[in-house]
Design goal:
Layout lengths: L3 E5 L3 H13 L3 E5 L2 H11 L3 E5 L7 H10 L8 E5 L4 H9 L4 E4 L4 H27 L8 H8 L3 E5 L3 H13 L3 E4 H4 L12 E5 L7 H10 L7 E6 L4 H10 L3 E4 L4 H33 L9 H18 L3 E8 L2 H8 L1 H17 L6 E6 L2 E7 L3 H17 L2 E3 L4 E3 L3 E7 L7 H17 L5 E3 L3
Parallel strand pairs: 1-2, 1-3, 3-4, 4-5, 6-7, 6-8, 8-9, 9-10, 16-17
Antiparallel strand pairs: 11-13, 11-16, 12-13, 14-15
Helix pairs in contact: 2-3, 4-11, 5-10, 5-11, 6-11, 9-10, 13-14
């Protein structure tokens, strides 16, 4: 898999060296020579990853990173700081500025490749979710409550078979306000399924189990697939760490663990996990809003049309009956005119409730619009569909509707028209037209009744 990578460095030799290494791996490389140039190209060329030098004149890498993360157009792009500085304080400062990781000059080829591959996997998930969201409901910027959740204390599951280091790391995290569960405390990993986990902190120094096999298990398990994995690595076993990143781990920290770096990396990985979570929730909400009528909670016309077409096809192929029930509230306009639109909305909501409680789980209740409702009745001949419509009609007419905080009661009735699929040559338009004609007959005959053209 190839990525579009923006390389930012004020020294041309450094830019060209990174460009050569990346292009040898078939990545597409964009070059920027300073901070303002980087900000401009990040907005105009849409890179998937940014390799950002820290020590630049004028605007340093920390400031560039902060500006990138503050801009909605570039905030989602992973940033890797590249610097000759190796102090923990410098790494932490970069991570706090929003960078995903650090690479120290001279850049190690294996670490560079592993970091790029890790970020590409992360991008593959977030990019697909953003595209789905863009093609559905556009929810706009992240809500304040969601942003607070992203920045809140982490829920960490620590997996280390060394009681001493496990207790030390757990204490450090708890003192920073994070909620920590350790393998030694729980005795097993069943707790992962019980509550949401942000970061799996796995020690590659563990001896009583194979940490890499465990990482592979996490990445193939539905419960933990999206959770960030932070590895604790032995500096002398670099190949093992690189393998962990290839398997799917998100980040690593070298032992002995530095307190500030640990806390910074946990915060970074927590933000990443929760950002993906929020994107998924927003996509799911967008999909739901695209098929659900928000006032009544029933399916909307769009969903009704697609489902009815599928049910008709199944009925024809399986040789089973299919019917539809079309309902319309009697004298709905006077309800709005007399009691107001709020009362009218409450009538629609209560009617939808009674409708749901008086049909089968297999039936599909929809609100195509206004005061009109439609129910798809699979495997139901017209006679039984009429009986079902009569049951719904009686349930609606039986008791008055309490509206406006139950200060008023309104008698509500519906008229219903029923029609059934006539065969393989029947069309959706004809099926719905017959139900509409039957409904019109019910209205003409005095309302509060059920009609079908076959009756």
């Amino acid at each position: 898999m190839s990525a579009r990578i923006l390389v930012v460095d004020d020294i041309e030799a450094n830019r060209r060296l990174l460009q050569a290494k990346l292009e040898a791996q078939y990545h597409s490389v964009i070059l920027a020579c300073n901070g303002p140039d980087a900000l401009e190209k990040a907005r105009t060329t849409d890179p998937e990853i940014i390799l950002l030098d820290v020590m630049m004149p004028g605007m340093d890498g920390y400031e560039v990173c902060r500006r990138l993360k503050a801009d909605p157009l570039t905030a989602h792009i992973p940033v890797v700081m590249v610097t000759a500085l190796s102090d923990t304080e410098d790494r932490v400062r970069g991570l706090d500025a929003g960078a995903e990781d650090f690479l120290t000059k001279p850049v190690d080829d294996f670490l560079l490749t592993s970091r790029i591959n890790t970020l590409m996997r992360y991008n593959a998930v977030t990019s697909e979710l953003r595209q789905r969201e863009a093609s559905g409901l556009k929810t706009g910027a992240m809500e304040d409550s969601a942003q607070e959740d992203v920045e809140g204390p982490a829920r960490v599951f620590l997996i280390d078979d060394n009681p001493r280091t496990s207790a030390r790391i757990a204490t450090l995290l708890r003192e920073d306000g994070h909620k920590v569960m350790t393998l030694l405390e729980s005795g097993n990993m069943g707790d992962l399924a019980k509550e949401r986990t942000d970061v799996l902190l796995v020690s590659l120094l563990s001896k009583s189990f194979d940490p890499l096999k465990l990482c592979a298990h996490f990445k193939t398990n539905d419960v933990t697939r999206a959770v960030s994995i932070l590895l604790i690595c032995d500096p002398l076993e670099r190949a093992k760490a690189v393998k962990g990143l290839e398997i799917g781990a998100s980040d690593m920290i070298m032992a002995p663990v530095d307190t500030q770096e640990l806390l910074a990396r946990v915060r970074t990985q927590t933000r990443r996990t929760r950002y993906v979570e929020i994107l998924r929730e927003r996509v799911d909400r967008g999909l739901e809003l695209s098929v659900i009528d928000q006032l009544t909670g029933l399916y909307n016309r769009r969903y009704m049309t697609s489902q009815l077409q599928q049910y008709m096809h199944r009925a024809v192929m399986g040789g089973k009956p299919l019917s539809v029930m079309m309902l319309d509230i009697d004298h709905f306009k006077p309800i709005n005119d007399t009691h107001g639109h709020q009362a009218g909305d409450e009538v629609l909501q209560e009617l939808a409730d009674r409708l749901r409680h008086n049909i089968r789980p297999m039936d599909v209740a929809c609100r195509p619009g206004g005061e009109e409702f439609l129910v798809i009745l699979p495997e139901t001949p017209e006679e039984l569909a009429c009986a079902a419509a009569e049951r719904v009609r009686k349930a609606i007419a039986a008791d008055p509707f309490n509206v406006l905080s139950e200060t008023r009661q309104i008698a509500v009735t519906v008229s219903a028209g029923v029609s059934s699929l006539l065969g393989p040559n029947d069309t959706m338009a004809e099926l719905l037209n017959r139900a509409d004609t039957a409904l019109y007959q019910a209205k003409s005959a005095g309302r509060n009744r059920v009609k079908s053209l076959a009756a």
